Amino acid sequence: MQLTEKLRLFLLIAQTLQLRRNLGITCPVLNSTMKPTPCTTFIFFRGSISITPASSPSIRLLSDFLIENKTWKIQLEGHVCCLGPRSGKDEPYLESTLSQKRAESIRDSLVAHGVNIERIKCVGLGNNDPLNDEETEQEQELNRRVEIRVLER
Fold first, then answer.
1. Which of 81-85, 125-129, 147-151 has the lowest mean pLDDT?
2. In what order do the strands lie in the sheet with 73-78?
3. Which residue would you say has higher pLDDT here, 115 or 7?
4. What are the residues whose beta carbons fall under 8 Å from the beta carbon of 4, sequence distance 6 or more?
5. Integer CA distances (angstroms), 47 to 65, 68, 129, 141, in order
6. Highest mean pLDDT range out of 28-37, 61-70, 108-117?
7. CB 25, CB 152: distance < 8 Å
């Protein structure tokens, strides 16, 4: 197995465990129930509503989980990095719009996989809640995200 294949497999396993942990699901590997917290599983390209390839498996994992657990309702919270769309005086509007569209793009993917749209709320938060100082490209990438919050179980 090549290094890139090993890295992809590791990322998929890490995303699966992170998603399960953040949804408060008993994790057989760790053999305990985790407290639900905000969960970052969807990372986006700069200025785009397209997720990175490494984030794609998370959509299937989340949709499968929501289909099995029909009482759960979630909120998708979209974010942008400090280098989001720039257009002078319209910048806050564009950041809010892009972050909202990111949440909606994840919602639309979940609905396409069979999740009822009424169970998903979308919110665009712009760049008001960064995870870091965004000094590197990697840090900026982490802030171009959609977080999942559990509203109801």
1. 81-85
2. 39-43, 145-152, 73-78, 120-124
3. 115
4. none
5. 29, 33, 17, 11
6. 108-117
7. no
* pLDDT tens-digit readout, 44-66: 888 889 888 878 888 888 888 89
In eight-state DSSP terms, residue 32 is: B
d(CA 98, CA 82): 12
Alpha-carbon radius of gyration of the chain: 16
Residue type, 44: F
| Cβ neighbours of 62 (radius 10 Å) | 23
DSSP assignments along 57-105, one per residue: HHHHHHHHHHHH-TT-EEEEEE---TTS---GGGHHHHHHHHHHHHHHH
In angstroms, the CA 16 to CA 34 distance is 14
Q: Which residues pair with 74 in a beta bridge?
A: 120, 150
pLDDT, tens digit, 9 for 90 and up, residues 86-111: 444 445 556 678 999 999 999 999 99
